[in-house]
Amino acid sequence: MAPRTDLSAFDGVALFAAYDGRALAPLAAHADRVAVLPGVILAREGHQAREVLVILSGEVLVSRGDRPLDLLGPGAVIGAREELDRTPHGATYVAGSGVAALALPGHSFRWAVQTLPGLAPALGLTAAA
Predict the structure, then answer these.
(1) Which domains are seen in the chain, by residue range?
(2) Where are the alpha helices (DSSP H) in the chain?
(3) In whole angstroms, what separates CA 71 from the centre of its chain?
(4) What are the start-end ranges of the H helices in 21-85?
(5) Has residue 129 got a pLDDT over 80?
(6) For labelling, which of 22, 23, 31, 83 has a CA lying 20 to 30 Å from the CA of 46?
């Protein structure tokens, strides 16, 4: 299966540093590299996760209700817990600057967590189905 996203998109992402191209190829076959303009909502509090985003560059503002919580940057992962648990997002994530990210469909992310040794612990997760 030809990758939708070039494997080089995974270069420099600490989360995937332990894996070679062969291990990442199935994930790349379903991943999309996306560019997001400032102010665009990446995930909305209370809405169901449909994908997992790995921030490659830029900043993401995190809030709950009207309260700012955090500022995320490269290497941050959005929606991992929600996708595995199939629960709604607990916060809203907004591109604070131009953001480049890898968008991983839920089924591909669940496959990666179950297949790639050490990925779940690196995310602070347990490998739930």
Answers:
(1) 7-122 (2.60.120.10)
(2) 21-28, 80-85, 106-115, 119-122
(3) 15
(4) 21-28, 80-85
(5) no
(6) 31
